[in-house]
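Q: I'm writing up a methods section and want to include an example of the input and output format. Could you take the sequence below and give the corresponding predicted structure tokens, formatted cleanly so I can copy it straight into the document?
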Amino acid sequence: DAEGRDDESGLLLANRFAQSAAGRVKSMQDAGEDVKLTLVNMPQLDDFVDQLDDQAGKELMEKLATRMQASSVGGDTAGRMGDTGFGVIHDAMTDIEAMQQQLVELTAQASSDGVGIDIDAATTDIADQELSSDDIATGLLFTMNKFRESGDFTMDTLCNSLHTLAGEASKYVNVFNEAIEKDKFNIVFQPI
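A: Here is the clean output for your methods example:
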């Protein structure tokens, strides 16, 4: 976990990804550029990598990471969220379908039968000019945690509700920070 990076892929881990991405997103928004987040889900990845020998598994993870980083803003705004989930911050011109197909091809090349794994991707705009980079980071973290948990959320639902989730997360953080700043809480010790 050197510098907040995933040991297998070398991609940024969720917290570091959110912080790094938020700064880049905000600067791109301020420059009037269109920024997008794509969530990538590879539900069969763990089982697939387990079937490979250690070296082949390591090489595949590095190739998948390199491909996602190549599609990301600045070459380093791709992150890993859990075992099978990834996030990529990119500009509007990035061909996500091509990236997705290349990821499938990389898994097919690593497979003994030449068949790749299923890869789902969903993309959303990150275009709300009113959010600070801290709010963007909080929203990304909240979204990525929901993505990792996967419960009732689908990738499309998550992407379509990123702004709502970011707003909710930001609201809770602001209420908490205000309570602390204005001493609007009482510490109570509960005997055991």
